[in-house]
Amino acid sequence: MSYLVHLSDILFVLFVVITIMGAYLAVRRNILLMHSMLGLAVCMLGIAGLYFFLGSMFLAMMQVLIYVGALCVVLVFGIMISYTPSEINRRQIKGKHMPLALTACGLLSAPMGVLIFNTDWKVSTVFPNGDIGPLGEMLLYKYCMAFELISIILLIGIVGSIILARGGHVTDDKASVSMDEH
């Protein structure tokens, strides 16, 4: 019994260390943004490990599927279409739109803050004993449309990112042949 207790302590510390190291990699000043994204993915995997350690297999799998799988893939596409540091210096776009960005952030965050603080949050009693069976039934029956719409939105985001990453370049065999002839 004491061997299992020590093993569980070691696993808990391991998941915490993975989470903290991933968070450190995500927020430290990296030359490449892709390294920060990799740190975010490692951090999310560590959090999924903590959920698994605490006995919530559903939350652990959703953490891996949604955050590591979907969100990190969309962020990778966003990084692929963004400017490189040399392009930012060359185009001199470092602080060009900062007043507009700060105004937009203020206009969006002020109403959200008012809503958050003025909402009467109620504690859910749907899962009193930790059973997630009713959650699965609600996702399959009551909230099926919302669940499918979320997956369609993620698919549209990924397809849009691919289109943007290509830069709108369309390969046309006839155009390339005519260019070679001249």
- H/I helix tally: 8
For this structure, what is the CATH class of the domain at 1-85? Mainly Alpha
What letter string, H or E per element, gives the SSE order? HHHHHHHH
Q: Sheet with the most strands?
A: none
Q: What is the distance, rounded to the nearest whole angstrom, between the alpha carbons of the first and last residues?
A: 81 Å
Helix-strand layout with pairing:
Layout lengths: L1 H26 L5 H21 L3 H25 L3 H7 L6 H21 L14 H10 L1 H23 L6 H9 L1
Helix pairs in contact: 1-2, 2-3, 3-7
Description:
It contains 8 helices and no strands. By secondary structure, it is mostly helical. Among the domains are: 1-85, NADH-ubiquinone/plastoquinone oxidoreductase chain 6, subunit NuoJ (Four Helix Bundle (Hemerythrin (Met), subunit A)), CATH 1.20.120.1200; 133-171. Helix 2 runs antiparallel to helix 3 and helix 3 runs parallel beside helix 7. The longest helix is centred in the first third of the chain and has 26 residues, at 2-27. It is globular and about 60 Å long.
Summarize the structure.
This protein is mainly alpha-helical.
